[in-house]
Structure prediction request, 300 residues.
Amino acid sequence: MGEIIDGKQFAERLRAEIGRQVVRLREEHLVTPGLAVILVGEDPASQVYVRNKARQAREATMASFEYRLPYGVPQETLLELIERLNGDPAVHGILVQLPLPPQVDAGQVINAIRPDKDIDGFHPVNVGSLTTGGDGTVPCTPLGCLMLLKHRLGDLSGLKAVVLGRSNIVGKPMAALLLRENCTVTLAHSKTRDLADECRRADILVAAVGRPRMIPGDWIKPGATVIDVGINRIDTPDGKGRLVGDVDFDSAVEAAGAITPVPGGVGPMTIACLLLNTLEAACRQHGLPVPAGLMEAAWG
Ligand code: GUN
Prediction:
């Protein structure tokens, strides 16, 4: 039976470290990192995410600005808001919650965010930086996954990593990050042939496909480290529903050396990394050194 990686606890410790750095920044440099979150429409899952992001920013004593726009908002209105936030010195990070409604071109919206305020790491400047070895912002979910992997495995050099799912938010940046860590990376997706065999060769398996319990335990190499990014709500007989990952946890935990649970694995790390990206953005925008060693301090 594999170790269950406690992302919730690690994220709590990381947020506490970030909170200490926020206090230091304010006391020593009179800078309070500010995060602006924009939500368009009333998608229930997005509302929960946005509420949690804003609450945890406040708990870390950052300034939190929330903007809720109606589902039918014209693209121009959204672009004008971003332009205003780009020029607001109290705002160091801008996050537009995805997905966006169909009348809005998500690519244009992301392009409008100033790259140094793009704490999601979705702007082409930051995407390019990740793939060319620069020090731009790294997307929060892949960064959180990488921290959990390093915590468990230390040096990742030479390990075979399989990333399932090729989204811009998780799969592609995750593959780029693992490559940067000297893994041998396979980016698998719905058209991949012999998916089970690909998975069975993986020392590191990152699942980000959005299909409940798609990956059974017998796809997992004995002793592998499994990171489950999926958050899928399934029906239950009592009508309440429940969250499950992309991996069938009960069978996978038997084969894996370590595995993240859902909930309580990757999810909490995503928000902690969002706060970390906001803190770093504030430091850079004020010409201050970016605090080092927060991840290691959180490991204890
Ligand atoms: N929707 C789902 N995940 C994310 C994320 O990491 N950032 C944003 N902006 N929207 C999302």
